[in-house]
Write a structure and sequence with these properties.
Mean pLDDT: 84
Helix content: 40-55%
Strand order of the largest sheet: 1-2-3-4-5
Radius of gyration: 18 Å
Shape: globular
Length: 224
């Protein structure tokens, strides 16, 4: 299937939704969103806070777009991360309260988080208070062959179409951080396997945090 970059990002990661068309027009006029040109610059944290206010869901795991279409990849990935953490002793309710997903993508333009910082979406794992961000996992989705081949991206993970995997060779940087995502409508089993593998790796990165390991072990210092 042929994609443009913005459409691929939106399909794979979901897209932000300003409150209404009038609100979108105001954001456009202020330069918060731009198409084919640079939006107003924001530092990393303000750019993150900006897109958090434009999420179309409270929880991507239960969200359905108009017409019943699901944002399948982040939903499935969130469930896989949850499953892995539950195996380590967390309750499903607790993970659902603490694991949050946000998109910075819009098929109508580009945000500062996307344009200036290269982040299309991110997960946050919150502390027990539900406020402190213990860890943020950033994602970039791209169909750009040069980006895939060179492996030069700013996020923790790069998501690319399965058909781009031949671009990776011995010269590719960060090759172990590139995820080639099959189309679930065409290769369901391969898609499920890819999501499971990535979910396990992200969960393991969360579990490597000393603070989280102390929680699991009831306040005991982490094993070394």
């Amino acid at each position: 299937m042929a994609y443009t970059g913005g459409i691929y990002e939106a399909q794979v990661l979901g897209e932000i939704t300003p409150k209404n068309s009038e609100h979108f027009n105001v954001l456009w006029e202020k330069g918060a969103i731009r198409e084919r040109q640079e939006p107003n610059y924001l530092g990393m944290n303000p750019a993150i806070d900006q897109v958090k206010g434009w999420q179309p869901w409270n929880d991507v795991r239960t969200y359905q777009e108009e017409g019943g279409k699901e944002v399948y990849f982040p939903r499935d990935l969130a469930f896989e991360i949850e499953d892995q953490l539950v195996k380590e002793g967390f309750s499903a309710d607790e993970v659902q309260k603490r694991l949050k997903y946000f998109t910075a993508v819009t098929s109508k333009g580009v945000t500062s988080l996307d344009f200036h910082h290269g982040v299309d979406a991110f997960f946050e794992f919150l502390g027990k208070d539900g406020k402190k961000v213990m860890k943020r996992i950033t994602l970039d989705a791209s169909i750009k062959r040069r980006k895939v081949k060179e492996g030069k991206f700013k996020t923790d993970w790069l998501i690319a179409p399965l058909e781009e995997q031949d671009e990776v060779d011995g010269m590719t940087e960060n090759a172990d951080r590139i995820v080639f995502l099959p189309d679930p409508s065409l290769e369901e089993e391969a898609y499920i396997g890819t999501v499971e593998k990535l979910g396990k790796r992200i969960a393991n990165e969360l579990l490597e945090m000393d603070e989280l390991r102390r929680e699991i072990r009831g306040g005991m210092p982490p094993l070394r």
